[in-house]
Amino acid sequence: MASVINESDMVFIADNAFHIEKSPEYTNLGNGVKSVEFVRVMNNNLLFIEARKTFPNPYSSKENRERFKSQLSDICDKFVHSLNLFAAIKVGVTGYPTQRDFSLPERVSLFFVLVIKNHEPSWCKKIEPTLRAALPRHLMKIWRPKIYVVNQATAGKRGLTCG
Question: What is the pLDDT of residues 5-37, one digit of tens each?
């Protein structure tokens, strides 16, 4: 059986994954730094996975537009902070190695993946460009991450979740 991580009422496949949110590197930092759930390597792709049960539809009300902006900002912080923390760990700044069963290929493509449990696929597609535009320009130029927003069904088809 594959390793799994339970997050936001979803079961994620965690083969070759680093549970950064539960790592001492992250938990010892205290307030002010945010983290995605975990980092996983799949086929030379380095995936930073953030999971959510729900996400506001910005087109339904003014209140939801404000909640959407706030949650989008939070997710951007999580991707940026997690990438910085992961890079600091890998270059040895933190003094902690990643898990022994986590290996990183010599060359990877970077992906920021937001999985929203029961979100409509059409809503997911509308979030992607907004999320891409909200991430810092320098990060987009230097790291060139691909951005994906998917629901649980699509995450399952792409081998990210079980069931």
Answer: 999 999 999 998 999 999 988 998 889 999 999
| DSSP-assigned letter for residue 50 | E
Length of the chain: 163
As a whole number of angstroms, the distance between CA 91 and CA 140 comes to 21
Question: Domain tally for the chain?
Answer: 1
Pairing mode, strands 4-7 and 10-13: antiparallel
Q: Are 89 and 98 in contact (CB under 8 A)?
A: yes
**Domain annotation covers residue 162:** no
Instruction: Say if 163 falls within a structural domain.
Output: no
pTM of the full structure: 0.91
Give yes or no for a contact between 116 and 149, defined as CB atoms under 8 angstroms apart: yes
Tell me how far CA of residue 86 lies from CA of 12, 31, 81, 92, in angstroms: 20, 17, 8, 10
